[in-house]
Amino acid sequence: MLMNFKSALLTIVLGVWIYYGSYLYTCQYWQLCGDPPEQPVGQAGKQSTPSPENFKILYQNQVWGEADDFVRFRHSDSLPQISDTLRPLLDSLQTYLRQNPDKTLRITGYYERKERSPNNFPNLGLARAQAFWNFLNQKQILTQTPQFLAEADKGLGPLPNQTWAGGLAVHIIIETPADKKLDVENLPDADQAILEKSHTVYFDLASIAPQPDAEAQRFVLLAKEYLAGHPQARILITGHTDNTGTEDRNMKIGLQRAETLKQELQRVGIPAAKIVTQSAGQSQPLASNENEEGRQKNRRVVVEITD
């Protein structure tokens, strides 16, 4: 009985000694114990959202003006929310454009593909660009014709209450007068390459609203001048789909997509007689229809010039 008691006591003493020795080695020598270091504000839990960049206006790749704030848009809404902080910069821009009629703006509207598109625009980015110009020229005193572009899934920062920060890129550019045609026979190499190749515009599932990128929109401007100087030339628009649904349905969707893009080309001044539309439906996939990434690539319209 006494031996059992001594053995138990020895075990307890030995355990305490090992525990205390480990504590001294770990906590006192290496200083690995204690409360974790305090995290800076905004780093606890999930990462904080990066602060949006200030609103800038660029000219020849240099900052022409900057405000200590940014334009805001509600989710799926095209109307810009302009704070008092932005107004002095926009007032200066209005004055500059009035004094320099040879200058205009290239306004790029950003949007997320998941946002709803207004009925009278092919996408929300173009609607936001147009709405910003309407705000800037609400007194109808600016005579310039701006360029409107759109880019998807970039340039937006989430804010509370379903609001985006950003949504616009604004560049001052030299305006090409309406009576001055582009010399399409002597284009810069970059523009010549854009004009000569076919361009692909993508669509969401079952949608006929296009998602044009900046290069495709530049192609439209060049093609308009090219067609005016080449009577036999045409723009060929071919609509494609993924394999979701029946072949007959997809042939119709492909043609609807081509016709929608035709209407956009007519809106910028390309005659309907110069535009040929057709549908390939699901018959010419670019990628596998077994996954969403491939199906997205297959939902497209291809635009090219034919002589």
Question: What secondary-structure arrangement, pairings included, does this model have?
Answer:
Blueprint lengths: L1 H28 L26 E4 L2 E5 L5 E3 L12 H13 L3 E9 L12 H13 L10 E6 L3 E4 L3 E4 L1 E7 L14 H8 L2 E4 L11 H16 L4 E7 L6 H21 L7 E7 L10 H7 L1 E7 L1
Question: What does this 3D model show about the protein?
Answer:
A hairpin with a 2-residue loop joins strand 1 and strand 2. The protein is flat and about 105 Å long. The protein has 7 helices and 12 strands. 35% of the residues lie in helices and 22% in strands. It folds into 2 domains: 130 residues, OmpA-like domain (60s Ribosomal Protein L30, Chain: A, 2-Layer Sandwich), CATH 3.30.1330.60; 127 residues, 60s Ribosomal Protein L30, Chain: A (2-Layer Sandwich). It has 307 residues and is an alpha/beta fold. The strands form 3 sheets. The chain has a 5-stranded mixed β-sheet with strand order 2-1-8-4-5.
